[in-house]
């Protein structure tokens, strides 16, 4: 992950892991609930099930890109968590593709 010049690699890796798992919860565990008039009732991370310890992959590899400083930021650092949550949409995409393949192979009915 490109974090620029890391001030504290342990904190940066923790932020990446936490953001990824929060995105996993957002994209795969959230149950959208709407009012009768169509107003979204479940908004934000306080309204969906956050992943638990049992949801964390047994192997979770995170590496920090070296040599990519941000010359315009404090100590050449870069933002982390927001981009990781967005990238976690791949969980949803992979699960959707798997369901489509299983459906067309006749293993599941939708």
Report on this structure.
The chain has 110 residues and is mainly alpha-helical. The protein has one domain: 2-Layer Sandwich (Aldehyde Oxidoreductase, domain 4). It is 40% helix and 0% strand. It contains 3 helices and no strands. It has helices at 9-29, 81-87, 89-104. The longest helix has 21 residues, at 9-29. The N and C termini lie far apart (36 Å).
Short description:
This protein has helices at residues 9-29, 81-87, 89-104.
Subunit organisation of the chains: single chain
Overall pLDDT level: 79
Give unreliable regions as ranges.
none
β content, as a range? Answer: under 5%
In the CATH hierarchy, the third-tier topology is known as Aldehyde Oxidoreductase, domain 4
Number of strands: 0
Q: Which bin fits the share of residues in helices?
A: 40-55%
Cα-atom radius of gyration: 18 Å
- Helices and strands, in order, run as HHH
Cα-to-Cα separation, first versus last residue? 36 Å
CATH architecture: 2-Layer Sandwich
- Derived from helix and strand composition plus strand pairing, the structural class reads mainly alpha
**Fourth-level CATH superfamily:** Aldehyde oxidase/xanthine dehydrogenase, molybdopterin binding domain
Shape: extended
CATH classification, class level: Alpha Beta
When the domains are counted, the total is 1
Number of helices: 3
The biggest sheet, with number of strands, parallel, antiparallel or mixed sense and barrel status, is: none
Write out key terms for the chains shown.
single chain; 110 residues; Aldehyde Oxidoreductase, domain 4; 0% strand
